[in-house]
Amino acid sequence: MESIIVRGGARLQGRVTISGAKNAVLPIIAACLLAEGECRLEDTPRLADVDTMCGVVSELGMRVFPGEGSLTIINEGIKGIEPPYEFVRRMRASFLVLGPLLARTGRVKIALPGGCAIGARPIDLHLKGLAALGAEIEVKNGWVEARARRLQGAQIYLDFPSVGATENIMMAAALAQGVTTIENAAGEPEIVDLANFINAMGGRVTGAGTRVIKIEGVKELHGTTHAVIPDRIEAGTFMVAAAATGGDVLIENVIPTHLKAVMAKLTEAGAILIEENGGLRVRSELPLKAVDIKTMPYPGFPTDMQAQFMALLTVARGTSVITETVFENRFMHVHELKRMGAKIVIEGHCAVVKGTEKITGAAVKATDLRAGAALVIAGLIAEGETEISCIHHIHRGYENLVEKFQGLGADICYR
Ligand SMILES: CC(=O)N[C@H]1[C@@H](OP(=O)(O)OP(=O)(O)OC[C@H]2O[C@@H](n3ccc(=O)[nH]c3=O)[C@H](O)[C@@H]2O)O[C@H](CO)[C@@H](O)[C@@H]1O
Ligand SMILES: C=C(OP(=O)(O)O)C(=O)O
Q1: Domain co-membership, 265 together with 394
Q2: DSSP class of 303
């Protein structure tokens, strides 16, 4: 399975069921470090990133039992304070064990996660937040070393509503002495899912989903059972694919309120979206219309949907301006889309997409996870054959992507 081959032209039709959210389950697995006992996670997706996070917590002493759409994590005490570099290097979200490990053991050594294809992605806000809770933090030779006796609640203001920083601080504060307030906190649905999980473990988190989160520290937490929310980015990817191919698809296991910005832009582009039979039906007649997009923290348009929407806009009527405000380098897919005949010019943080009548199949490379998804969508609307390489990026965050598209009538397979 080295590449994905797509032959364009099919109008997607039928139903597709969305898996559990990657960006919710990863911090929740990290949060299992917070409590001794057994946590059962349901509706978990089978993804490379989930395997990596399970590998990280296993190295720290957790026993992980994968089931059919579930994970059972048994915590009989933390047995390590140094998540292996190999895991942290492979997946940035591994850094989310810092907060819970620090709260439980008072000592952590973890590699700096470093940048990736979409930007430099510093972790200064994570560290500032944990320092405010009383941790002593030293960064040297590519490692972060953190120590604390018992963390103390504090008032923390984030310069930017960082998802990861909010999560790391929230997990650490759950076991701190006293009350922590995070102002300008991230409000993504995955933050709410993590807060619900912590509360189910006996924690006291309020305000998740708003810009101010309050965490009353408790002495200890306990195991629990939790069902992970559906993946709004996977849902959005299928919605965009359905609209881009002039299709008619019922998306099942989706929470439409998590997708308001994506729905608004699809509607503006001319697609018809209806909540129906407990799902979300997306249909469209081609061509769609150009629309401008600006990525923003939730509830704004998600940066994780920018590449996929750009693929749709390559063949829309008119010119669209896509502004990326969350990551400074998230336009790697532009070069690949241009290889397929897309007319796109990058001007600073903007990509100007001039809709063309058709794009054509080509050999292209997935430079990151969502770039890979965008190239699959581009392949579905292109004339001829598209071969997408470096598909390990896609396996990080999409469960059975090829099989799900096949189920909607797409001509797509592995080679
Ligand atoms: C596993 C996971 O949930 N990943 C998501 C999470 O990533 P992640 O949690 O890494 O994203 P953040 O919200 O932290 O990053 C947003 C912006 O803040 C900057 N920043 C962040 C932390 C920090 O300490 N200093 C700093 O400057 C980043 O470089 C970036 O420019 O949210 C992103 C933004 O919605 C999504 O694209 C990712 O899919
Ligand atoms: C950027 C993403 O993930 P991560 O933060 O894990 O790199 C993503 O899911 O699109």
Answers
A1: yes
A2: G
Per-residue model confidence as pLDDT tens digits over 1-39 = 689 999 999 999 999 999 999 999 999 999 999 999 999
Does 323 lie in the same domain as 176? Answer: no
Q: Give 394 Cα–ligand 2 centroid separation in angstroms.
A: 11
Q: What is the mean pLDDT of residues 75-97?
A: 94
- Count other C-beta atoms under 10 Å from residue 279's C-beta: 20
Co-location of 223 and 264 in the same domain:
no
Same domain, residue pair 88 and 219: yes
54 given a catalytic annotation: no
Q: Which residues line the pocket of ligand 1, CB cutoff 6 A?
A: 23, 26, 92-93, 119, 121-126, 160, 162-165, 186, 190, 303-304, 326-327
CB-based pocket (< 6 A), ligand 2: 23, 92-93, 118, 304, 369-370, 397
Cis peptide before 287 (omega within 30 of 0): yes
- Say how many domains are in the chain: 2
- 167-195 pLDDT, tens digit per residue, is 999 999 999 999 999 999 999 999 999 99
| Judgement on whether residues 34 and 106 belong to the same structural domain of the protein | yes
Of 32, 116, 390, 413, which one is the catalytic site residue?
Answer: 116
CA angle 224, 229, 232 (to 5 degrees): 160
The pick from 126, 160, 233 for probing ligand 1's pocket by mutation, whose C-beta has the most ligand atoms within 8 angstroms, reads 160
- 19, 22, 23, 333: residue to mutate for ligand 2 pocket, most atoms within 8 A of CB: 23
307 and 355 together in one domain: yes
Q: The domain that contains 75 carries what CATH number?
A: 3.65.10.10
| Residue ranges making up the domain that contains 350 | 4-18+230-414
Please state the pTM of the whole predicted model.
Answer: 0.98
Question: Do 80 and 215 belong together in one domain?
Answer: yes
Q: Are 269 and 403 in the same domain?
A: yes
Ligand-binding annotation for 23, yes or no, is yes
Would you state the pLDDT for residue 1?
A: 65
Q: How far is the CA of 402 from the centre of ligand 2 (A)?
A: 20
335 token code pair: 């070069």
Strands 279-283 and 248-252: antiparallel
Q: Which of 227, 249, 275 is the last residue of a domain?
A: 227
Whether 199 has a binding-site annotation, put simply, is no
Which ligand 1 atom sits nearest the alpha carbon of residue 164? 9
In the block, residue with structure tokens 């929310």: 229
Average pLDDT for 327-339:
96
Contacts for 194 with CB less than 8 Å, ≥ 6 apart: 24, 27, 28, 31, 167, 170, 171, 208
| Angle, CA of 356, 280 and 231, to the nearest 5° | 85
Percent of residues, the chain, with pLDDT higher than 90? 95
Last residue of a domain, one of 204, 227, 250: 227
Task: Quote ipTM for the complex.
Answer: 0.99
